[in-house]
Amino acid sequence: MKIIQDTTNPLKKQTSVLCAYVTEKTNQVFGLEGINPKIKNAITESLKEIEGKLGKISIINTYDLIPAKRILLVGIGTKEKISNDTFRFASGKIAQKIKDMKVKDFAIIVPQKTQLKQTSIISQIIEGVRLSLFSFDKYKKEKINFSANLAIIAPNSKDITKVIKRAQIISDGVIFTKEIANLPPNECTPITLANFAKDLANKNKMKCRIFDKSQLKRGGFGGITAVGQGSKNEPRLIILEHNKGGNKKPIVIVGKAVTFDTGGISLKPGEKMDEMKFDKCGGCTVLGIMKAVSELQLPINVVGIVPSVENMPSGESYRPGDIIKLYSGKTAEILNTDAEGRLILADALSYGEKIYKPKTIIDFATLTGACIVALGTNVAGMVSNNENLVKEMTLASNETYEEVWHLPLNEDYMSMIKSDVADMKNVGIGRAAGTITAAAFLQNAVEKTPWVHFDIAGVAWTQTGTKEKPYNPKGATGFGVRLILEYLRKNTQ
Question: DSSP letter at 267?
Fold first, then answer.
């Protein structure tokens, strides 16, 4: 899709479909002031149907009275309730309608004089359009080959060209994350993910290092080695480095990538086990972030670390009752082999802190079903050892509308994972505070660095209860890519 800025007067723009936003109650149509009376009457009648409600669409024929062939009106709700997601949502609805209409070009008028900055609206428009047109049809015989050029109609400004480019790169990062996260387990093993990382490094001039099974064992990565030993698909530790920040301390981003999780010896129920292909979403998010960071050429140092395994039951699998030694040197008693994500993350977190001595550590993981019980399927759990980091992430979340909720982590929770026979155990006490006790295990892997953990079990893919959003079609959502890129953007200002 080619996206350009266009400063043409909307009423003089030649396009197949001219798209304008309209508010609820006030029926304000942005950008079509002074339009031909005949078309204005048609708009008035059309507004009676959609009433400006968020995402509602109406199409009007212009009868060649203006250069645009048709006008598309889309509701954005009441003006006072316009949020940082309104135009992303509404623009996604536009994109879906344009796709149904099978036109090859369309134009969207950027509203002026709203409570949002013009640059924010443009970013939302592009993300909404691009992400709503994504379709995972890799394994379908009939492909959906749709493409249309988009003109963003807005006043002339140097910033707009930069915003358009940035929004496209961010959207590409999310789409890349979705593409690999949606891959089935027979097509995506730890080695496959490692190859994706190598390709990213080659294309975007990043440094890449891959630890194989023997290197992991020799290096003392006891968590990754133990979880991965039950599968013929060997584990990998993937490391990508974007070094554009000189001597500044890097930001380390870690992502859990269990390419398929049966639960191991503590076998999961068969129902919905197919969804465990999404247990790699944290790692896929990290790869998507690194892709965008490198293409944006951010003037910072960022390290992406992805521990990747397949958790399978076999004669080689680790067992309940085992005691393993993690990269940190601490020991963990295994009480449930389905609590595997924290083991591989602990190794990666400790390695990232020791080797890179980072400014900040961030991790993403589809870690606990308990997070879905606590927060549902639209909000990610956030646990941290640093209040300032929590505030920064909350601000970034408010901008990208990827919702997070801060959960506590104190000594009471830390004590819940103490073991009688090892330094800690890999599950807490019964079902109580499952999301927090999992985070407590990770906290043991981080010594002093400001750290934030996102449990994305409920938001990494669309599930029962997931809000309908046109830019999140069924499957992986790419949650976290936009969030962290917004955080990084603010860190480069």
Answer: P
Does the pLDDT at position 493 exceed 80?
no
Pull the structure tokens for residue 26.
């006030």
> Looking at residue 60, what is its pLDDT?
96
Confidence of residue 144 (pLDDT cuts 50, 70, 90): confident
* CATH fold for the domain made of 172-491: Aminopeptidase (3.40.630)
Residues forming a β-bridge with 210: 238
Mean pLDDT of 83-106: 97
Q: Are 289 and 305 a contacting pair, CB within 8 Å? A: no
Cα dihedral 455→459→462→464 (10° resolution): 80
Burial profile 85-98: b = 16 or more Cβ within 10 angstroms, e = fewer: bbbbbbbbbbbbbb
For position 291, what pLDDT does the model report?
98
Of 424, 408, 406, 404, give the one whose Cα is nearest residue 416.
424
Active site residue 256: no
Which CATH number applies to 3-153: 3.40.50.1950, 3.40.50.2300, 3.30.300.210, 3.40.220.10? 3.40.220.10
Q: What mean pLDDT is reported for the chain?
A: 97
From edge to edge, which strands make up the β-sheet containing 57-61?
Answer: 3-6, 149-153, 105-109, 17-22, 70-75, 57-61
**Active site residue: 342, 425, 469, 482, which one?**
342
Give first-to-last CA distance, the chain, whole Å.
29
Task: Say whether pLDDT at 127 is over 90.
Answer: yes
Token pair in block for residue 274: 């197919």
342 is catalytic: yes
Which pLDDT value is given to residue 458? 98
**Exposed (0-12), middle (13-18) or buried (19+): which is 224, by Cβ within 10 Å?**
buried
Q: Please identify which of the residues 268, 330, 418, 489 carries the catalytic annotation.
A: 268
Q: Are 252 and 303 in contact (CB under 8 A)?
A: yes
User: What residue ranges do the domains of the chain occupy?
Assistant: 3-153, 172-491
d(C-alpha 400, C-alpha 247), whole Å: 30
- pLDDT tens across 252-281, in order? 999 999 999 999 999 999 999 999 999 999
Band of pLDDT at residue 409, cut at 50, 70 and 90: very high
